[in-house]
Each structure stands twice: as structure tokens, then as C-alpha cells.
Amino acid sequence: MKKYLAVAVILLFISVSVIPSISGNINESRNVEIVDNVEHSPLQVTFTRPENGIYCFDKKILPFPVPLILCRNVTVEAEVEPMSEVVRIVIFINYRHHETIESPSPDYKFVYSWGGPPFSKVSFGIEAYGHNGTYANDEIIIRRIFR
User: Fold this and answer.
1) Domains along the chain?
2) pLDDT, average across residues 80-84
3) I want to staple 133 with a disulfide (CB 3.0 to 4.6 A). Which of 34, 38, 65, 75 is the partner?
């Protein structure tokens, strides 16, 4: 009986405080390509993990419109393609500069384990800069309920 009550309280919290704060597509990717005489592939940056859903112990347990972490850390991953075009990658956490990688290796993949305080929200952003001014970025916002 206590388990059902706990689940009901969690779902009530989600429906009252998390769902109304969702606006738009937070996983929207914006790609910009500058064309010149040399053919370049457009850059693509995509957060691949976590997907929209409810996570516990770094595993997706239920579908949900946004990434929502119930407990423990979650792994955040992003891919940049094609890496042969990338000259610099800049990473932001909560809209603040976290790291700049100059001349990343061809097998580079952004992987970060996040476990913030209870009832928090964090934004992860990644920007990729390519040859001759090509640019792409992506952002993901993750919400957390418990520790």
C-alpha cells in the first residue's frame, strides 16, 4: 500500500509542477551551414542520452515528455558529426562555459554523468565549430526530483 501511495505522490508532483513548466521542444537542434566554393558537410550536434522519459538508476523506466530523473545520476551523451569537419567544440552547463576542446579527436563523444540536487533543473549545451565558419549546436534540459 505504501508503494502505491509513493507512486501516486510522485505522479501528482510531476503533473502539478513539472508538466506545466514544459514549453516547446527542448531537444530542438539548430544547424547552420555556410556555403563557399569548397564543399563541406554540414555539422550536426545531437544529444543522444537521456531521451525523453523518467529515469531511475540511469535507466529509463517510463516514457515522459522531458528527461526527468527520479534518483541517482544520469549519463548525458552528445554526438557531433562529421568529426572530420570539426575544429572546436564548446560545452556549456547551465549556460556557463564548462569546457572548450580544440582539434577534437575523430572518435570524440561527449559523455557526462550528472547528479544534481533534489528538485533541480540543469541545461547542457554543446556547440561545434567547423572549417570555414560552419556551426551547429544543441541543448537539453534535465529535471531532477530526488537525490
Assistant:
1) 2-144 (2.60.40.10)
2) 89
3) 34
